Amino acid sequence: MASILDGCTPWPEEFVDRYWAAGHWQGNTLDNLLRGWALQYGPRTALVHGGTRTTYAGLNRRVERMAAGFRLRGLRPRQRVVVQLPNVPEFVITVFALMRLGAVPVLCPVSHRDSQVTHLVRVTQAVGYVGPATSQGFDHTAMAADIAARWPFLRRVFSYEAPGTSSPYGGLMSDSSGCHYFPLGSVDAPPGPAAAQSADQVAFLLLPDGPDEAPNLIPRTHNDYAYQARAAAELVNLTENDVYLAALPAGSDLVFGAPGVVGTLSVGGTVVLVEGAGAVECLQAFAQERVTITSVVPAVAQLWLDALPTAQADLSSLRLTQIGGRLNRATAERMGTHLGCRLQQVFGTGEGPLILTRPADPDETVLTTQGRPLSPDDEVRIVDITGEDVPDGQPGELLARGPYTLRGYYRAPRRNALSFTPDGYLRTGRLARRTPDGNLVVTGRFTTGSTAPPEPT
Questions:
Q1: Are 87 and 273 in contact (CB under 8 A)?
Q2: Top-level CATH class of 30-37+56-197?
């Protein structure tokens, strides 16, 4: 049985053996993979943000020193830390530093506010919070202080301040509740001994898609996520010459590892981080950094298309655009024409599986389907309301299990009883059908009228 974080469900032993034998799981933690990438690609540019460029060697060095700094400030392996940062280098550095320490990042969109962040802190019993001091006029550190006053296990708040800015939280301090506050830039110390870790441990916790104020969390292990990012990178022929634009939130599954940030770093490519998917900044980045691949949702794609006639952007380097979400055919055809690149339709959630079209697929397949599962060991069923498989062409609920699809939400036994079949298939809650040539079309939400009762606090 795989070793696990308390509150998570492991894969059954027979599936563990299968995924190891197939070479999907390779026993390396994500932070240790970064060590190897730094050795292999040291002087190459790993991250770009505005005028700041970070090499692979520099990225690994900063991760090493931040991990030691977190340890010095009292963080320990297996503890949970909410990470709510925008698309800045510190997001990547912080997540990898916490994993190197053996702590578990809880990835939270920067747009979330008190009720949503409080839920994450409470459910995970997070001992730390990392977020911007302020962002777009909102005081994140004050929010964290208020949450810490209500939940006494939150005792360390680390505030990120953009270069050239200042805030009231620029120095070390503590409050009457015993919570300590640190500038994120001060979290730095000489590296110490490496933490003993296993790749079957949980690497981080993800939020599912959707507007739920109190979502169940998705545990991702080092083994399963390294496989997902690597397989997705291979599928789109990613190489060290590729430049990936992270325009959507970097903490989303699509942008972090489908192949996204992790997949791009795994091959020695460059990740360009922009804080927001606005057309002006993103289209400028295409030209300045010679972006070759990016990921968008339909609403962002529409913004970019509308801006193109006046932007006069140079998109000649772009070879592939991933579309996450339901895209109508007219917009897809327009994108192919105006962006001058191949499109890849992607259906996926943080739970798994990933369904993708292939770069070599016929145009009709790309325009009308979401493609096929990423892994040869992804098992997919489409069933009716009784749980019986439906014929090809008929709609039903998409069920899935595989080497990167979770077997249970974090600390959510009631939800798990409803969300998984007895033989381990995830009920995705999505309505889909299979075409005669084996591609999947995801058309909406599958509802049965039943919902999980709230988990006990």
A1: yes
A2: alpha beta
